[in-house]
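re: ur msg from earlier - yeah i can do the arginine complex, just paste it... oh wait u already did. ok heres what im feeding in:
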Amino acid sequence: MYRSRLEGKLDENTLEFLSSISDDYEIALYDIVGSQAHTIMLFENEIITKQDAVKILSALEKIKKEKFSAKTDAEDIHEAIESIVIKKAGKDAGGKMHTARSRNDQVALDIRMKIRDDINTICFCLNETISTLLQLAEKHQNTIMPLYTHMQQAQVGLFSHFMLAYADALFRDLDRFYVAYGRTNESPLGAGPVGGTSIPIDRQSTAKMLGFKGLIENSIDATTSRDFVAEYLAHAAILMTNLSRLAEDFIIWSTSEFAFIELADKFTSTSSVMPQKKNPDILELIRGKTAQVIGYQLAVLSNLKGLPSGYNRDLQQTKVSIWPTSKIVISSLIVVNSLLKTMNVNEKKLRQAIDGGYSISLDIAEHLVRKGIPFRASHKIVGQLVQLASNSKKSLTRLSVTEVEKAITNKEISAKDLYKIIQITTPEMSLQTRKSQGSSGKHEQQRMIADRKRKVQAYMVGTTKRTNEVRQAFDGLEVKVKSLIKK
Ligand code: ARG
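and the outut:
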């Protein structure tokens, strides 16, 4: 349709190479809605007549309900829609739809509307998943478990504390997306090919009709920049990396060696040959798909880094990274949420794991510190206790007073007192004593849960408000379109 300056048609292979049509279906509806807003603005500013506007709008309404044929000569969805509008509305009217805009501002507009919706969906999914983690935290405030560093037992902790840790990481993801929404929600429409237009358009009015908060003002910036895409994908990659850590923890915890959790049957797979298998394939796929999302983010940055300002066709390829990223992120959050809701937490196994290790050591050392012994000396005493216990393959509580005596080299404390401290430093008591902010301490769990519940509520309200604003704008646009067509 656009090739009047060029001789002849593109051959089939070249068209296929050049065309983005197969990637464009995801933005087809946005393109139609964007064209409706543009057409109404052209009419309201007396750039086109009402009759022409009605013809264009009626054609666009029909296209909304139709299926696109896979066979088209169009290079992309923008050309495809415009050529159908011209066919339906006639050359005289249809040919006016593209007045004062370009595919360059058009494609940027469509991508922004798509990412804007995807961000809201992701924020909702994150809210749901965080809420589930908070419910688990609430339920498991007394479920004692070992905490690990280097995959070795480190300190006595609580299952609730672990769930709150995931929740806080996901809160940061939520906040990243939530803030990025503001930078995405700016309209590039009317920027034209790169330098704007002499036709008296009203950019603010199309922005408003499409539910944008404002304009991405500079027309060069509006058509060139895809940093909002890079930002969206970066946030997606970080979120997936956080989910991947949760997945890795859960894979380890669901081995028969750990058996801290058991995944519900419907969230596991089995083997074609080993009948006993219950594999955490879903979690493995979270890890696997994370790699893919990181790749998409890298592909976009690599694409952008070499480009000069102004639209360049390379930008077409950025879309290829966006759609699958949204799909992966949204579906990952949905399955992780369901998996969390249905898994079984083996409280007994978690508690037993403590007894098999020496994760109480630091609590004993801190007890000695509270008795006035310098930490370095306490560390040494408890280290020696653990060595003695470990050599005779028993727990610290099973050491006799005479054995305990061997650990005291500088008479900092009597063997009897040390023996008593070891006996009373139970995991339960340690978690009562743990007071520092954000720790595994009992009281901290209650405080953090209440605080995070309020936080999740605030994001929920904000996301709902944004979704409604977009919906109301689209509803208003539809009313305008319908009333013009009817008259
Ligand atoms: N299919 C193109 C894309 O997705 C649309 C913009 C084409 N603009 C142009 N001047 N060739 O990026």
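cool cool. The CA atoms of residues 363 and 429 lie 9 Å apart. ping me if u need the other ligands too
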